[in-house]
Amino acid sequence: MFLEKVHVIKTPYRILIGKGAYKFIPQILEELASASPLLVCGPTTYEIAGKEIEKILKKEGIRVDHIIVERASFENVKSVLKKAKAERFNVLLGIGGGKNIDVAKTSSHYLKIPYLSIPTAPSHDGIASPCSSILKKNKKYSLFLEPPSSIIVEMEIMKKSPLRFFSAGAGDVIAKYTAVTDWEIARERKGEYYGEYAANLARLAAEVMLKKASYYKKDYENAVRLLIEALISCGYAMCIAGSSRPCSGSEHLFAHAIDFFYPENKALHGEKVALGCLISSYLQEKDFELVRKTLTTLKLPRNYKEIKIPKEILIKSLAKARKMRKRYTVLDELKIKSKKQAEKILKKLEII
Question: I need a surface site. Which of 8, 42, 90, 238 has the fewest CB within 10 A?
Fold first, then answer.
């Protein structure tokens, strides 16, 4: 087949960032030839943004409705599919944080309709990426799907994001510091495809956040905008690479292991991968003290007490991380597979 030899790069059609961005949603829908949107929201994000968007769309005579989802699960995806099919909605608007956008993203894949990404907090690189993380029977599945048709960022809402969400988003960007190195290791050891431009784009985003970690203390609004641009750049890196490789390595495997062994944990995704980045940077012989300093600046968790996850879970997660998915990383390079090895590393880094 001809297409098997062609690398297809799909990216968002429009990206809007600024005050009053929601007013352009009707125009974007018209350009996409999508006249009937279904809003996918959480209960909080519906109040924060969903109501206003519904009002704007109804004023333009657009048929619109919403559905509330509590978590990113296949059960919620099925609910969206059922409503969208029954009422013939032809575009989804994922409004909120990672879980709502992931549900919209996954649902749009099955429905074969476009979706818009409308984040209300800068906590996750999923706002611009083709990747979604969906629960099925308490196990998370990572899916590589389609990027959003458009991304709409209302700065009046984003600048009010709590510091914890900002820091989690920064943590997700900083994680690329080790993810790219893991990709390089896989290229050298396994001959895996490596896209230099995508890698450099992700690396640049991480370097900017490492360098500007304290910027939020001086100018929170512009720091949020800088973070949003970094998150979107990471999304583009994945689109260009055709996989999550430039943005997800051993630090993400560690986070996935935590979710698998301790699904009741309340830590944000960015908090877990940032802690994983501290571990991975040490294993990769990179500047792990710079990572630790950055986590401190951003008030991100640096140990089991701060992240509120038991020591034994972190030990088990590090020991089992390499088995979370078929992805060669520094964990395979060093053959970390025993709890004794993992415990020694975590104690060395003062995580436990």
Answer: 8
DSSP 192: -
CA distance 159 to 36: 29
Nearest residue to 161 via CA among 232, 214, 235, 225: 225
Q: Would the pLDDT of 4 be above 70? A: no
Q: Say how far residue 196 (Cα) sits from the centre of its chain.
A: 21
Are residues 199 and 339 located together in one domain of the fold? Answer: yes
Q: How confident is the model at residue 302 (pLDDT cuts 50, 70, 90)?
A: very high
Residues 344 and 203 reside in one and the same domain: yes
* Residue 287 to residue 289: CA distance in whole angstroms: 5
Which of 10, 4, 6, 1 lies closest to 239, judged by CA? 10
| Segment holding 118, helix H or strand E | strand 115-119
Q: Which residue has the tokens 């720091």?
A: 223
Handedness of CA 206, 302, 160, 127 (dihedral sign): positive
Residue 190 exposure: Cα atoms within 13 Å on the Cβ side: 15
| Residue pLDDT, tens place only, 204-249 | 999 999 999 999 999 999 999 999 999 999 999 999 999 999 999 9
Query: Do 198 and 101 share a domain, yes or no?
Result: no
Q: For helices 196-211 and 220-241, what crossing angle results, to 10°?
A: 160
For residue 267, give its domain range: 163-348
